[in-house]
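so my prof wants the structure for this chain in the tokens format not the other one, which i didnt know existed until like an hour ago. anyway here's the sequence
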Amino acid sequence: MENYPVMSGAESFFIQGNEIGVLVSHGFIGTPQSMKYVGEGLAKNGYTVYGLRLKGHGTHYEDLEGSTYEDWKQDFLNGYNKLKETCKHVFIVGQSMGGTLTLRTASELRDLTGIMLINPAISSIPSMEPYRHSFTPRYLPEGAPDIKASDVHEITYEKAPIKSIQQLLSLMDETKARLSRVLCPTLLLTSTVDNVVPPSNSTNILNHVRSVDKRQLFLQNSYHVASMDHDKDQIVAECTTFITEQLEKRSCLRAQ
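here's what i got, hopefully its the right format
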């Protein structure tokens, strides 16, 4: 249960379209606002897009402190089920921790048509590792979001609970152990310079998922929150191309 109202602009969003559903997710301490440009860009293709808000995000960091990664996993399943009510195909686009949760979901569900990961966290977030087993301080100050473009405002928290950081690290550990269970087509979009999640995280994923169709594309002009950065249009374009290709492959297989 959350005790604070959702901040203005941090709400989840749903854009009704055709039978192709796309679930989009923000990252740790972020909100749907960080993925809205990408979500709206995909919706212009006619897709049904749902930008979910993970529990404890977009309200107050005390709400985040009371949330667990089990809550976030359930948020993903709920979002998937919401899209499956009207959609024949479901794709997921996840940024940072949203990418981690995308992989965790893909390791469990077998009917995802494809997943797209933007700077996903799986093996290393150097700034967080020292707090894996710490209990103090209760909250850590958060710096400015890692965005190369100027004059971009991301709705986020000024503090991060240590308890929540530990939940993220536990989620990463669990998901890393399940990478070999990911079989669906996978697109990795990796910033060449990321000051939060090293690009080696994407390499680790690429090496361990068992998807037959797995590929990596590099974002040359964005930092960690790439969905709000200089390459956001490239992200929309690459995701659109990926979705189109996967649907065409499905159509060809049915025709055989």
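also thought this was worth mentioning. The chain has a mean pLDDT of 97.
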